[in-house]
Design brief:
The complex is a heterotrimer of chains A (493), B (135) and C (338). Chain A has 493 residues and is mainly alpha-helical. Chain A is built from 20 helices and 2 strands. Chain A has helices at residues 5-23, 26-54, 76-103, 106-128, 132-150, 157-187, 192-202, 206-223, 231-238, 241-266, 269-275, 278-298, 303-324, 327-358, 369-372, 374-388, 394-408, 412-438, 454-472, 475-489; strands at residues 57-60, 71-74. In chain A, strands 1-2 form a two-stranded antiparallel ribbon. Chain A is globular and about 70 Å long. The model of chain A has no long low-confidence stretch (mean pLDDT 92). With 135 residues, chain B is mainly alpha-helical. In chain B, 64% of the residues are buried. Chain B has 4 helices and no strands. In chain C, α9 (190-213) packs antiparallel against α10 and α10 crosses α11 (241-247). Chain C is globular. At the B-C interface, α1, α2 and α3 of B face α1, α2, α3, α4 and α6 of C.
Chain lengths: 493, 135, 338
Amino acid sequence: MLSHLPILQVILPLVAAPSCMLIRRSSLVWFFSLLVSAGALVVSVLLLQQVIDSGPISYRLGGWEAPWGIEYRIDLLNAWVLLVVTGLGTAVIAAARQSVQREMDDLRQTLFYTLYLLCFAGLLGIVATGDVFNVFVFLEISSLATYALIALGRDRRSLWAAFQYLIMGTIGATFILIGIGFLYMMTGTLNMADLALRLPELGSSSTVLAAFAFIVVGVCLKLALFPLHMWLPNAYAFAPSIVTAFLAATATKVALYLLVRFIVTVFGIDFSLTSLPLQSLFIGLGLVGVFVASVVAIYQVDIKRMLAYSSVAQIGYMVVGIGISSVVAMQATLLHLFNHALMKGGLFLALAGLVYRLGSSRIDAFNGLGRTMPWTMAAIVIGGISLIGMPLTVGFVSKWYLITAAIESDMWLVALLVVLGSLIAAIYVWRLVEAGYFRQAPAGGDVTVGEAPLSLLVPTWILIGANIYFGIDTRLPVEVTGAVAQYLLGGIQ
Amino acid sequence: MLITSLYNYWIVIALMMIGLYMVVAQGNLIKKIIGLNIFQTSVFIFYISVGKVDGGAAPILIEGENVYSNPLPHVLILTAIVVGIATTSLALALVIRIMRAYGSVEEREIQAEEEKREIQAEQEKREMQAEEVQC
Amino acid sequence: MDLVLDIVLLSLLLTTAVAIAWTRDLFSAAMLAGIYGLLSASFFMTMGAVDVAFTEAAVGAGISPLLILATLALCGRKQRSDRKRALLALGLVATVGALLVAATLDMPAFGDPTAPAQTHVAPRYIQDSMAEIGIPNIVTSVLASYRAYDTLGEVVVIFTAGLGVLSLLLGMRGARETGTALQAIPRQHLVLRMAAKVLIPPILVYALYVQFHGEYGPGGGFQAGVIFAVGFILYALVFGLDAVRRVAGNGLVQFLAALGVLIYGSVGLLGMATGKNFLDYSALAGDPVSGQHIGIIVIELGVGITVAAVMMLVFYLFSEQLQDRNDAPEQLSPGRAG
């Protein structure tokens, strides 16, 4: 069975999803989805262990060898991302039950969990595969499920947000499809490893360059890199709370993985950095994204939307890391991928609790929250501190590595701007603290407001606890991402 | 030489761009979806052109035939067509819901409606605060 | 001859695309989009892509215009002028188009048999698929065996879309269980009713033929599923939705949609149970080639079931919406419904 781990990782949720439609009872379906997600988490832990012990794993689907059949190829990079995605996916689904009950009618709960598993399987499929066309297929599975999940939001604006995302996402996916077509045309292959072998022979052919451009733009649309982020704030703000937590913790991370995979593995880091001014483009767009999105976040009234803009800013940091393109910078990016998933997963789950009790995530709902919902409010504060990047939280670790990388590469200005960006984050986090602890709850307001239900609070605090735990005991993420970065870029330094 | 060997691709590019233009420029949501369809179908035409071999037969093995078109792009596009219709049906279902919720499928009207509502919400909030002060 | 046909088809495509972009009448745009689908199907024919042509004709000229028309019936067919972003769009299109044209300059010539795409991976499919899989249609061999996992993904995409539409439109009509969604065509349209009665059985038989003949000629699970669903849709159009739902109700259709994916997945898992990899059919029978045969037939069946079921589900949901419009027009402001 151990030799089948790569495919089990994806096929488990993929086959579980239609099974949900046969179970039908929503409470059972929730429990079933939780079991499946936990199973996927176990598989990803075993996979990472296997890759660390014995190097990259290749799995031939249908038994056909690589360029003719589809191959799953797990190396350190995607084993790490698989662990992040399954871990966060499990934590979010564990919290889902009561929030989903509150936010959706009975008819739709089973559909919700089925779509959730499909989205989960799609994301895992993108990460696990070693075939570029297979990436497109699984990208569309996860995307279609995502559009439907967003549209399940209670506010009608969720429909509009889902439609806008559908249009942008499909344009992005079609761009990727065009890029894949060009690559196939020039090499005759769809296998990533085979492409990596054959592309250098072509040098800087204009077709390959165009393929590169289309794929990078398409993936950046999915990633919501500034200025291609327009779909994200509304999608996050109006989706059901659980969906927002899931997307923020996993979907953009998978897009980031895909960007790294194409840049480093398929095209090769040398080609990627020399043929287009990608280095300055990524650092530039990343930093502009950090500042614009952070400043916009300050002025948001809806806190879900505020954190959505903050996500756009955090994506900026990760892309800056790719732009600097040293081993340490890549490590910073991969660390931040994990850390940001922990922060946003925890924060959006805390907001789900808030919405569960108060039915709103607007800033005025925070008034007096420090007294009425102390645990939820404390979780939000700690998550916010981690978002700013203060010591003893994970946010500090990744920022530290990013600043170190910038200084090592003599990019003092970049280092300075990263620090400044964190200060802006402090402003919007402070707004929450101010409302929660220094303002009174509206007089004569609902006195029955209590703490969020335990089923939401426990997963929230597991993620928030992880923010602190991995901020102090940094060994696991730092060692793994260090190894991954070395594996990816070690050759060039 | 260049023109005769590549004109096919150039026309396909023109088709793609007409589709993309419709998606971006049109304010009507259904027209956007039709544009998206044109865009995608044109990419399919490009893929199938890649698989074309001069004098090649359809890729179904027959005695005495040696040259076939490349079957792989065909397989990829079969999948892509299915993905396309899946996206279209989901998008149209979304449009129906948007029509119910907003009473319009014109982008501009939907956005105007949103802005109007936001202003209303602001006003109501201010009125409520004013009442509280009076109490 | 080929060249002339090629040029004629491409210019027709171009004209149709321009007309679609130009017209303000959405009804014409939808019909023209159907023509566009049919023209691209013809183009695929001339390129030797018979399976793709078959599918594109069913989707581009069949399902997709049908769904667009159903949506138009709800949303009105007039588009109001709104080209505020014309400049932005032109700029974007010019940039992307220039990049694409630049990309073509280093491309191998159209139809070149020595192009990398023709010499690297594909030759194995053409030369060895007969020995390895044992069926003449190479496209089916690649689709259902060499790259069977992509096809599993494709079935899941369809399933996901079906569920997505279900989650969007389920219970969204005002009058729930009352009333028929699509009214039966009145009795005096005897010709229509008779024609439908005569046509539907052959359509279903033809669907079965396409389902199981995909190994030898163009066809397979997806096309068969679409045709099968079309048979039912035609029945619903003539005899009313309720008549069809008595045969295949919402619950059954949802069950079948899930079942198809599960059948496909189980064949894959069976491969693992026989000690091979996921979706490896070679151990399903005594010798690998018959194993491949069995595997392909079963997964194609899974594809056909899911596709037919999802198509019917989507059709049900869309036509229920139409019914709602007839029942409760006050929900939509009449001016906007056009």
